[in-house]
Amino acid sequence: MDLAMDTAPGLPPRIDAVPDAGPTAAAPGRVRALLAGIGGYLPETVVTNDELARSIETSDAWIRERTGIAQRHLAQPHETCAFMATRAAAAALADAGTTAAEVDAILLATATPDEAFPATALRVQAALGAGGFGFDLSAACSGFVYALSMADSLIRCGQARGVLVIGSEVYSRILNWQDRNTCVLFGDGAGAVFLRAGQGTGSGADRGILSTHLHADGTLGDILYVDGAVGQPERSGHLVMQGKEVFRHAVVRLAEAVEEALAANGLDRRDVDWLVPHQANQRIIDAIRKRLDLPPERVVLTVARHANTSAASVPLALADAHARGLLRPGQLVLLEALGGGLTWGSALVRL
Ligand code: UT7
Q1: Which of the following CATH numbers is that of domain 30-200: 3.40.190.10, 3.40.50.720, 3.40.50.2300, 3.40.47.10?
Q2: pLDDT given for residue 234 in this prediction
Q3: Contacts of 213 (CB under 8 A, 6+ apart)
Q4: CATH number of the domain at 208-350, please?
C-alpha cells in the first residue's frame, strides 16, 4: 500500500507550497530544508498477534498490553528493502508534485539492505531514474532521524537542493521467529520524504527543518544488536535484545532529546502540534508524551498497526498522518527515535 498514492483522488493538501529559493550563495537569510513531500509503502501481508500465537507461545493480550501492537505488515520475497524504498520514494516525489529530475541525493537508512553493495540507495536511484549521488546509512531505529540530519546539512551547505530521505526495513529477515521476546515486536515497511532547499530567516518561525540532534553511546552496543552480517563467516545474524534495558534507556534518552530540541529553538512544548515518535512500544511513547505534557490527540500513533519498523517507523508514521489529512502548513512536528548502537536523536520540523 502506497500511503500517499492511495489517498488519491481526495489527496490532503500538499505541504510543498514554499517557493524555490534561488541560488543558495546569493540568497539572504538562511537556507532551510523544506519538507516538500511524504510517502510510504507497507507490504500487503498483514499478520495479527493471534496468527503469531499459533506458532510461538504468546498471546494477543500479552503483546497488546506490553507493547500496544495488534498487527504488523510482513514482506513477501519480492518486497525487498530496495523495492519498498522505491515505492515510498516515488510516493514522496509525487506528493511533492515533482519528479526524479529534482533529486540531487538519496540517503537511505536501513539495517536490512538488499546487498552489501551497491548501496540500496543506488538501486532506488536506478529504479527512479534519478541522478546525483546516494548512500546507505546504518543507525538502526534512529536511521531516519540520522539521515534527515545529514540531508539537512547537505542542503544547508549548498551541496544538494533536492534530497530523498528514506527509511526502509525488512526486519522479518533478521528476526529469530522462535524468540518470542523479539519476533512479536517488529514489522516491515518503508517511508520517505523529499526535502527541497528553501529560504528562511533563521528563526523558529521558519518552515523546514529547524534543528536535528544526534546522539550515540557505543558502550551500550550489546543491549540491542544483530549477531552477524555479511562480513561474518556463515552468520547473517538475528536480532538480539535486552528489552528491559532498552526500554529504560529509551524513556530517559528520548525525554532528554525532545527537551533538547525545544530548548535549542527557544520553543515551548505547547508549540508542538505533532509528536511523531519512533513506534517501538506504546508505553515508551506514553512516557515521552507525559513528559512533554502533550494531549494524546497530538501524538501520531501507528505502533498498533505497523509494529516497530525500525528506520521506517518515523517516516511511515509521518506518511500515515499525512494520508489522514492531519498535517497542515506551518505546524510544528517533533520527531524522535532510539535504536541499536545505542543511537538516538530528534528533529524539529515546521511543515
Ligand atoms: O526499536 C528499538 C527500541 N526497542 C524498544 O524500544 C523495545 C524496548 N523494550 C520493550 O518494549 C519491552 O521491554 C518489551 C516489550 C520487549 C518487553 O516488555 P517487558 O514489560 O519489559 O517484559 P519482560 O521482558 O519483563 O518480560 C516479562 C515476561 C517474561 O516472563 P517471566 O520471565 O516474567 O516469566 C517473558 O518471558 O513476559 C515474557 N514474555 C512473553 N510472554 C508472552 C516475553 N515475550 C513474550 C511474548 N509473549 N511475546
Answers
A1: 3.40.47.10
A2: 81
A3: 257, 260, 261, 264, 345, 346, 347
A4: 3.40.47.10
Give the mutation target among 52, 55, 64, 66 for probing the ligand 1 site: most ligand atoms within 8 A of CB: 66
> Is residue 141 in contact with ligand 1, taking CB distance under 6 Å?
yes
35-51: pLDDT as tens digits: 999 999 999 999 999 99
* Residue 9 three-state SS: coil
pLDDT in the model for residue 3: 53
Q: Is 141 a catalytic residue?
A: yes
Q: 184 CB under 6 A from ligand 1?
A: yes
For the chain, give the mean pLDDT.
Answer: 92
Bridge partners of 2, per DSSP, are 41
> 141 C-alpha vs ligand 1 centroid, how far in Å?
18
Of 49, 213, 308, 322, the catalytic one is 308
CA of 5 to the centre of ligand 1 (A): 36
**Ligand 1 within 6 A of CB of 284:** yes
Active site residue 278: yes
Q: Model's pTM, two decimal places?
A: 0.93
Average pLDDT value for residue range 188-199:
98
Give the tens place of pLDDT for each residue, 50-86. Answer: 999 999 999 999 999 999 999 999 999 999 999 999 9
H-helix segments, 96-179? 120-128, 143-156
Known catalytic residue at 308: yes
| pLDDT tier for residue 28 given thresholds of 50, 70 and 90 | low
Counting Cβ atoms within 10 Å, is residue 298 exposed (0-12), middle (13-18) or buried (19+)? middle
Question: Which strand (E) or helix (H) includes residue 112?
Answer: none
Q: Hunting for cell 499478520 — which residue is that?
A: 47
Active-site pick, 213, 238, 249, 278: 278
